[in-house]
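Before relying on records like the one below, remember that each one covers exactly one chain. Contacts with other chains, cofactors or solvent are not represented anywhere in the record.
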Amino acid sequence: MHLHTVDIVIIVCYLLTSVLVGYWVAKRASRNLHSYFLGGNVMPWYVLGVSDASGMFDIGGTMWLVYIMFIYGLKSVWIPWVWPVFNQVFLMVFLSAWLRRSNAMTGAEWIQTRFGKGKGAQLAHLIVVIFALVSVIGFLSYAFKAVGKFATEFLPWHLSANEYALILMAITALYVVKGGMFSVVITEVIQFFILATSSIVLGIIAMRRVSPEMLHKVIPAGWDNPFFGWHLNLDWSHLIASVNTRIASDGYSIFGLFFMMLLFKGFLVSAAGPAPNYDMQRILSTRSPKDASLMNMWVNVVLIFPRYFMITGLTILALVFYSDHVRAMGSAIDFEMILPIALAEFVPAGLLGLLIAGLLAAFMSNFAATVNAAPPYIVNDIYKRFINPNASQKTYVRMSYAASLGVVIAGISVGWFVESINNVIQWITAALWGGYTAANVLKWYWWRFNGYGYFWGMVTGIGSSLLLVVAQETKLWDISALNAFPLILLISLVGCYVGALMTPAEDEQVLKAFYRQVRPWGFWGPVLAKVLKDDPAFERNKDFKRDMFNIVIGIIWQTSLVLIPICLVIRKFNATLIALGVVVATSLILKRTWFDHLDVREAQHAASSASGRA
């Protein structure tokens, strides 16, 4: 496809502006490590929330969401639970506040808060660094593959997908490496408003071009209904027969069982807390635990409407005007190309440039946030701690530049050989997260869990997830990453319990200090008894039932937020009003049971901390 000159000018101007803005704020970011990695903890929660939302609004994820909505319709609102998307609800309700109370700079540094500084803690620290780097490189390879496939459809220089991805990553790295967190957040806020405008415009185009009657001619019965039974019951055979084959290969035909797996996996992964990536970095960058909770609430609000407005618009345009092309491809269809082809066919010159700039902004936001999440682990947790603990702040910042470049090169190297966006998503969300989950659930809720247990749980989990990749690539075992999740989780749990129970518990003072500082609920009885012996005025966390109730209400609230833009774009106005009513009702409940309790919770925490110091 050939872009109009106006479109090319818009795209080039956007890329130049992003680099210039990133450099403009770089001076403030390079003062010291705290400024470079966490922005000095001075940025407001709503700015960090927009930044976090922008980082999640990536091209690869958008292409995948268009693909699953094309096939599964409104039932696709459940499939992103594979990430799981409702981890933001867990963070909003209680986990981000627990994490922020640590005052750590990275997830690995947080390990000292929980396990101290002994040999077990050092091993736990090491494995978190390894996991962080593996997951960041996995996300970068996924971004590399996605932006390359997208660029080949639009950019006019006839390069390969990998060559385009290499150029765009290099441009983004220019300001990310130099500017750190300040540069990433400021550019992401700008990029988000480009994205939101582009998304709403595209949704309006789709609503004007596609009537409900036109849509119903090209979708199977049940496509526009989010509810389901034990079986999926979407029959595409009389429309696009190859889609039935794709449903079978995805493994979603028995949708009730699939949904139960999503719920089981989702609750465990969400209860483990954020992975050591850009999401955790935004939480640690907030001013206070209350701000951390508000930031994760805001992410849901600002991200969902524009993103799903765009996704639904692209999907219905593709269904009505692109179904013949899909049918002609037969079993060789590449669903990941629906997004760029739909844009190319239905968006006029000028506006197309803005939309492409918006999606490039999505890529750059996600890439920038991911790159910026890795150097803290290399510099703060390896170089500063073990190699050069007395270096100047300028030296640490320069090392951060080098670490960022190294991570970018590693991500590009892996991404060069990846074949499918969907394969990377499946491995990250199911296999790798399966290896992460057990150890990171136990670290919050069980006092007897120690650094050795954490280390061996992570080693067995990550190792089994990597072996799964080898088994799949060598055709030794044909199993999806999601179906392998329970096995990986079980292997990791065995590693956790053997590692913990074969070694001594952590030092009593470390456990008491962690319990006082974070105030988790869970299986902390022996530690609580010792804390109360020292300080009878200490008040334990009694919010378990309240938090569980708010999580259930929060998931209903979040899912209804997703349904509003979808139903609006496909003109199911009654369903839109119902979803809006649910959002209003759940918002009022959360106002009373969650928001109004934030100050009370932090006041109780401050009082307990003060009594301990006294």
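Residues 511-614 form one domain.
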